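R.M. (postdoc): so does anyone remember the format we settled on? I'll just put the C-alpha cells first.
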C-alpha cells in the first residue's frame, strides 16, 4: 500500500488510491483511515473527521479523526437534537454539502478552536445516510470549487466503503442466525452434537498448530471443525440416533452429509479451506473414502486433520452402539491405520499431543 505522505499529492490521488485498493481484498477500516488522513494532509486542513450517524440515538459519533492538534481532546459525539450550530449536523439534515468560508461571519461553529473554514459533506449511499465527512482549515476561504468537488467525490468512495462494511456485518449476522438455527435442529435430533463439534474443533486446532500451519488455515480448521457435520440436518433423524449398525441404504443416506454441509455453507461466505474441510473429512488416505474418493495429498489438509480429529473424538466418547475406548486404545487404533485411512503426518502430530487435556 503506498505511503500517503510520499505518494498521494492531490485529492484525486486519494480517490484513485482508494479505487485501486477497492479492486482487491482490503481492510475497509484501514482504507477509510488512510482516506481521512490523506484528505487532511493534501488540503492542509487542521483536522479531518468521519462522523457516523447512529439513527437510534440520533447522534453523530466521531469514528475517525486526523488532526494536527494533539493537545485538544476530540469530542465523542454530536447530539443532533441539541446541536443547532454545527456544520456536520446541517449537512446531515439537509443532505447537502455545507461550506463555511469564514466562521467569524457564520452562525455555524467549528469543532476545533481557531478553525476558519469548515467543509461538511454528507456521506450517502443510495438512500442510506452513513454520516458526514468534515474538514476544517485555519485559514478563511481555504477550499475552492474544484477542491470541494473532489472532496465530494471522495465522500462517495467513503460511502461505498461504509456500505460495504455495513453489508458485511449484516450478512455475518444473518449467516450466524442461520447456522445457529441449523445447529439447534441438529441438537434436537442428537443432543451430543454440540459437544462433539466443539471437541473435534479443539483437537483439530491443536493438530493444525502442531503441524505449524499458517494462521489462516488454523482458523479454517477451527471453523470447519465446528461445522463439519452441519450437513446432517438433511439426514433423517432416525438414522442419526440409530443405536445399531446402519443398513446399506441408511449408510448411503448418511454419506450425503459432507456434500450437504458444503452446499449449505457455500453461499455464506466461508473461505474455501473451510468448505473443503467440511466436504472432505470422510476421505481416506488410500482413496477409499467419500464423497469424492480422493487419496493422499489430493485430500485438502483441513479434511485430513478433521478425519483424524473426528475419529479420535468418536472413539473416546460414549456412543449409542458402544462404550468409549481409553485414550491409549484409541491412539493405537489410529496409528494402526496411518498411511491407509489417515495421513501419517497428521497421525504423528496426534501422537505428539497431550491428549488428556483435549478430549
Amino acid at each position: 500500500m503506498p505511503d500517503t505522505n510520499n505518494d498521494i499529492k492531490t485529492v484525486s490521488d486519494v480517490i484513485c488510491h482508494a479505487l485501486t485498493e477497492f479492486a482487491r481484498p482490503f481492510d475497509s477500516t484501514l482504507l477509510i483511515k488512510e482516506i481521512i488522513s490523506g484528505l487532511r494532509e493534501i488540503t492542509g486542513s487542521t483536522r479531518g473527521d468521519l462522523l457516523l450517524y447512529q439513527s437510534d440515538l440520533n447522534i453523530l459519533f466521531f469514528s475517525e479523526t486526523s488532526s494536527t492538534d494533539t493537545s485538544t481532546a476530540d469530542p465523542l459525539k454530536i447530539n443532533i437534537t441539541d446541536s443547532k450550530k454545527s456544520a456536520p449536523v446541517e449537512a446531515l439534515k439537509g443532505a447537502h454539502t455545507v461550506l463555511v468560508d469564514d466562521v467569524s461571519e457564520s452562525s455555524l461553529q467549528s469543532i476545533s478552536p481557531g478553525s476558519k473554514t469548515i467543509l461538511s459533506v454528507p456521506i450517502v449511499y443510495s438512500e442510506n445516510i452513513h454520516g458526514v465527512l468534515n474538514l476544517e482549515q485555519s485559514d478563511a476561504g481555504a477550499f475552492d470549487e474544484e477542491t470541494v468537488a473532489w472532496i465530494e467525490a471522495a465522500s462517495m468512495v467513503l460511502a461505498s466503503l461504509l456500505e460495504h462494511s455495513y453489508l458485511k456485518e449484516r450478512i455475518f449476522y444473518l449467516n450466524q442466525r442461520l447456522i445457529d438455527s441449523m445447529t439447534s435442529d441438529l441438537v434436537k435430533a442428537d443432543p451430543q452434537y454440540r459437544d462433539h463439534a466443539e471437541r473435534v474443533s479443539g483437537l483439530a486446532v491443536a493438530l493444525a498448530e502442531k503441524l505449524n500451519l499458517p494462521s489462516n488455515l488454523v482458523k479454517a480448521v477451527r471453523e470447519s471443525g465446528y461445522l463439519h457435520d452441519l450437513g446432517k440436518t438433511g439426514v433423517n433423524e432416525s438414522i442419526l440416533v440409530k443405536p445399531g449398525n446402519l443398513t446399506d441404504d441408511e449408510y448411503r443416506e448418511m454419506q450425503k452429509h459432507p456434500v450437504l454441509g458444503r452446499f449449505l455453507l457455500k453461499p455464506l461466505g466461508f473461505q474455501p479451506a473451510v468448505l473443503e474441510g467440511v466436504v472432505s473429512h470422510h476421505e481416506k488416505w488410500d482413496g477409499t473414502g467419500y464423497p469424492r474418493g480422493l487419496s493422499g495429498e489430493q485430500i485438502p489438509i483441513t479434511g485430513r486433520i478433521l478425519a483424524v480429529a473426528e475419529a479420535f473424538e468418536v472413539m473416546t466418547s460414549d456412543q449409542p452402539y458402544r462404550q468409549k475406548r481409553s485414550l491409549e486404545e484409541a491412539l493405537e487404533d489410529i496409528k494402526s491405520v496411518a498411511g491407509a485411512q489417515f495421513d501419517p503426518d497428521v497421525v504423528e502430530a496426534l501422537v505428539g499431543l497431550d491428549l488428556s487435556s483435549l478430549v
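R.M.: ...and that's the designed sequence above, right after the C-alpha cells. Also worth knowing: The chain has two domains: 4-168, 190-357. The domain at 190-357 is CATH 1.10.3210.10 (Hypothetical protein af1432).
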